[in-house]
Amino acid sequence: MAKITIDGKEVVVEEGKTILDAARQHGIRIPTLCSHPAVSSWGGCRMCVVEVDGSPRLAAACVMPVRDGMKVVTTNENIITARRVVLEFLFAERNHYCMFCGASGDCELQALAYEYQMDHLTVTQSFDKFPVDVTNEYMAIDHNRCVLCGRCIRACHEISGAHVLGYQNRGTHNLVGFDLDDIRGESTCMGCGICMQLCPTGAILNRYRTHHAVLGHDKTKWKVIDSFCPQCGLLCPTVSSVEGNFIVKIEGKTEAQPGRPDRGQLCQKGRFEPLKSAGKRLLKPMVRDTNGGWKEVSWKTAMDLVAGRMNTYKDGGTFGLASARCSNEELLLFRDLMVKGWHANYVDTLHGPAYTSLTSAWADLKKVVLGLQEASWKQIAEADKVILVGANPGESQFLISGLIRRGILERGVQVTVIGPVDVTAPWTTHYLPVAKGKEPLVVKALLAEIMSSPHKPVHLKTWDKIAAEIGKVNVTDLLKQAGLDDEGREAFRWAARWYMEAKNPMIVVGNNVTSLPDATGLRQTMYLALLRDVVQQNTLRLVVLKPNGNSAAALKMRLATEKSSVEKAATWKRGLVLLAGDDLATSPFLNHLGGLEFLAVISPYFPEELADKAHVLIPKPIWLEEEGTYTSLDGQEIRYKKAVVSRPRGVDESWQTLLALMQRSEFHPTYARWRDLNAKAEEELRPGA
Ligand code: FES
User: Fold this and answer.
1) Which atom from ligand 1 is nearest to the alpha carbon of 31?
2) Which of 109, 458, 464, 685 has its CA 20 to 30 A from that of 137?
């Protein structure tokens, strides 16, 4: 530990910390600009200069390490003058006319100018006109507002692991660029927005919220609400700034979160999508008349109509489809209403066929070995070898792709990709390019290769059962069937060897395998995981990507099972669809919802795709407007989310709407209060239940 003095106050800090760390630890403010606690410091801007041991040469507090006995002064006339000079040059080097800037009122540079009472420049302005890049839907980059602090670049490297941003050009033409001088829209930028979150000026702007702080959204009135995003199952912590009932911005939580490896990254689903409207809000119940037009009706009329049309049948033609983005409580109510209240013979999620083989693969695995469960997605952050089987986490669980990228660059993680797209290019160690659906052939070949090699596991209790299922296979033939050329076959052999030599391997399996109606491919992927020891407490080295945020809860509640199939839609006559946002458009069931006797839809938005198919529409809040619990991707965590903003007047909470329908059915639940419903959902979904 080092004992130092800051502004006359004696403080004790760990050796190796910087003066800025020490000051922050003890509540002493030093102004900063290029430094941000979420990324490394580089001492670029010199706003944080302080006096050390009376030396006239000021030091940058963000990079200067403490030394025992050091005496630091954070403010005196010299220091203030130096910081003002820094600020003046920053303002003079680019166009920082705040009144025209989209970040005015919410800008660190502007705030520093106010703090140092910089009301005019004493140096001549000298800057060229730089481009403004608006080729991304969510973010604009205005190089004229950039101070080249590099926070965005370090965020892209250190938090997202994307390494897309970097400096380009020299001298006064130095810019933050994408890849090799691309525009953002044509670069490899994935649009996660962490660069925007760390940008201290208006250089990287949220296109859905420009001028937010001056358009009546006074920063001093913002409420800051800690929550999380339930959209993909990783339950990423969020910090929402809200004024009144308006969400000004949503940011990732960059402070270290116990047990979470994500460093504050969010994806577009969590950061941007809630800021834009996903369509016309449905605010009143509506009924389609005989001419095909929609008219508003009372809640009682709509609920009675739905109950009347759904209640009376037991002929097997009743179905229910729910979005797996709904909360645990909504899914529980929906299932009980459909199964126990209305005797539906088909209940599923909108994307049930995407994981149709999952339930039966787990059931099959139980016949080989008991008590195994899926690994936590967080364990990917500790793996030294990752095999992606028909999985593209960049599309479904963006943060997982970031963990893998960071693993490759920071820890030398080896990655094998089995599937049609090289999802970690250009860093993949072994790429086995096979067409969608052919991945199981490579998995089977891997099993056979490993089991016949010197690397085979010696003490595996389940060996005989796996060997019996694999039988005698010709690995070369399997790889040929899969379509691998010589290069692919060579990569395959290395992948097999490295998988067995790895200390902590992890397999990530995705949609291409889980959506196959035959569960053999997924089961054999589980065997492949089983060839290595379990991670801990019977946890298989396997993470299964699922299409929606609460898919794990839907699976556990048996809302989505091996019976998921669009072919079953041929028997449907009447049904209820529960939506949570915009995932109807990508549902394989969408084209099977026309021409039904009766179709009721509960949705936050007017469902345009069903405008000529549905008969009754009932409104519900969006996920930000109501409370509920959500289950993580791996089923191992249940978190409670409160409402971030209020729901529209006259729109009931979803659980109350579903309960009101249930009370009109044959089934009368024991959980008529929120507390009981919440406890019931928890009881069913608790890990290990
Ligand atoms: Fe320390 Fe920029 S904040 S040099």
Assistant:
1) 3
2) 109
